[in-house]
Every structure is written in C-alpha cells, then in structure tokens.
Amino acid sequence: MTDVYEVVVVGGGAAGLSAALVLGRARRRTLVVDAGEPRNAPAAHMQGYLSRDGMPPAEFLAAGREEIARYGVELVRDRAVDVREGTGFAVVLAGGRTVRARQLVVATGLGDELPPVPGLAERFGRDVLHCPYCHGWEVRDQAFGVLATGPLSVHQALMVTQWSKDVTLFLHTVAEKELTDEDRRRLTAAGVRVVPGEVAGLVVEDDRLTGVRLTAASGEGQVHARQVLFVAPRPVPRTELLERLGAEMTETAFGTYPVVDGHGRTTVPGLWAAGNASGFSEQVVNAASRGYRAGAAINGELLMADLDAAAGAAGV
C-alpha cells in the first residue's frame, strides 16, 4: 500500500509544489513526481513574485521542496511515462514504479523551442530573452534587438520599448510586405528601426552578446551592434498525460491546452491541470496560484466524496 496515495502531483515546479503544499497541510497523503526540468532553469533570477523578486529559480524550488516535506508530502525524482485510469489513476514512472492515486494533478509545464539561429540556445536566459516582464528591468536602456519569426513579433518589439528606446526589429523570416500600415505607424512612433533580411547568428565577445549578424544574402554579413536580443520561442506544452487520459483540449495561438475551470479541473473526473500545463501565460506567481486553487479544490472534493460514501454506508 506504500504506492497508494490520495493525490499524485506530476511536476515539481511552482504549480505542483504549491498544490502539494496545500494538500499536505490538509493532511492528504500526497506524492510529487519531479523530473527536474523547470522551464526557467536557464534564468539566473526570477522576477515579479512579491517577496521573492530576484530569487534564483533553483533556490525557490529548493525552498518549496523543504516546505512540502514539513507536512509529510513525498517527492520522487522521476518521470511519469504513462498513466491509466481505473479506480482512480495509475501513474507509471520511468524508474519502473507504478503509483496510484484517487486524484491526479498534471503540472508538467512547457518547453521553449527556440528559432534555429546559431548561438541562441547558448545565450538563452542571459542576453537572449523572451519576456520583458521577466527580464526587462535588468537589461533596461541597453541596445535591444528583436528577432521576428511571426505576426506577434511586432507586438514584442513595441512592448520592449518600455525598457529601452534603442530597439531594432530584425525581420528575419518575416517579409517586409507582411507589415501592416498600423504596424509601420506604431513602429515609427515608438522609434523602432526595422532591418529586413535573415539573421545568420550572434556575435559574442568576452561572453557577452555584442551584435547580430545578417546572412551574406541579406546584408553582406553586416553586423548590427546589440547587447540584448528578444526572441519568441515556440511553446511546446507537456500535455501528453492529459491527452492520454482523454481530457478535452483546445487549440490556441500558443499551443494546445486542456479545457479547465477556474480551479484547474479538466473534463476528466479527478484530473487537474495547473501552471503552464494549463495555459501559456502563467508566470511563476500565477502558476503557484493555480496550484493553490487546485489543491484546495481537490481537498474539498475528496472530503465530500468520503462523507457521501460514509453516509451511504450508514444508510443515512
């Protein structure tokens, strides 16, 4: 019976740990399965979380793991590779263990697929960034570049002008003719320079980004001096477990996500989603909030189910 829990939480990030904290404090036997792949691992610090602003993500997660342990929540370093529904849920781990639970929380987050430009991955989270709310203050007033890869890139270029007035939009894979009149009007008003042509790579000196190089065909290998480059990674939601259990999914501009209510409840009874597994725009503070809501709702649902079963058994 050691592998039978009331709740299993798959994912040990902000959402999963927050759900587990609530459940542990509610005296629910809970297991967290953590593959150790947080989305914000490349970042040195996280911002925008009141009282934790500037805290390194690894320290934040370590503190969360210590907190859930105080309330008897177990955590295992493993990966959930399969899940089956029966009387509750059976979660198969990569290490060969199968754990069972009455309720299941999927908080597996998402991955960031970067544009295929040499050097981006090595600098990501340092001077290649994606979110001005996460990193804009730290790089304020530096020379920004924005790598255009789709229709939302103009919006990204306009947004980052709040943190620097020296912004260059590299059209890269976006044709100049794709810019609308409104795009051009706003870019001009914001003082954003627009550079057509494909980006070949980055120029890095003394472990710092110093420029963006165009392809020979685009600008004879011309280098534009930049200190920061904003990109828009393609989000890859880790929702395989949810789909395997038949949760209803919905297509968005940022990937396919489960249909959930305000507490993270999916269309499959007993199955919950929290954090970036439930939507693209969940920052750390939002993910923690989502996990908290799910944990509280799960405890209430389990309590009422047990009371109803007891009443039925007593013939009440």
How is this structure best described in words?
By secondary structure, the protein is of the alpha/beta class. Helix 1 packs parallel to helix 2 and helix 1 runs parallel beside helix 9 (284-313). The mean pLDDT is 95. Strands 1, 2, 3, 4, 5, 6 and 19 form a seven-stranded mixed sheet that branches. A hairpin with a 1-residue loop joins strand 4 and strand 5 (88-93). It has nine helices and 19 strands. The chain has helices at residues 14-25, 57-70, 120-123, 132-135, 153-160, 181-190, 216-219, 240-244, 284-313, and strands at 4-10, 30-34, 74-77, 80-86, 88-93, 98-106, 110-113, 128-129, 144-147, 167-170, 193-195, 199-205, 208-214, 223-225, 228-230, 234-237, 249-252, 255-258, 271-273.
Averaged pLDDT, please? 95
- SSE class: alpha/beta
Our measurement of the CA-to-CA distance between the termini, rounded to an integer number of angstroms, reads 30 Å
Q: Which blocks of ≥5 consecutive residues have pLDDT under 50? A: none
User: What would you call the shape?
Assistant: elongated
Task: Report the radius of gyration as a whole number of Å.
Answer: 23 Å
Fraction in helix: 25-40%
Number of helices: 9
Beta-strand share of residues: 25-35%
Q: Oligomeric state of the chains? A: single chain
Q: How many beta-strand runs?
A: 19
SSE order in H/E notation?
EHEHEEEEEHEHEHEHEEEHEEEHEEEH
Task: Let me know the largest β-sheet.
Answer: 7 strands, mixed
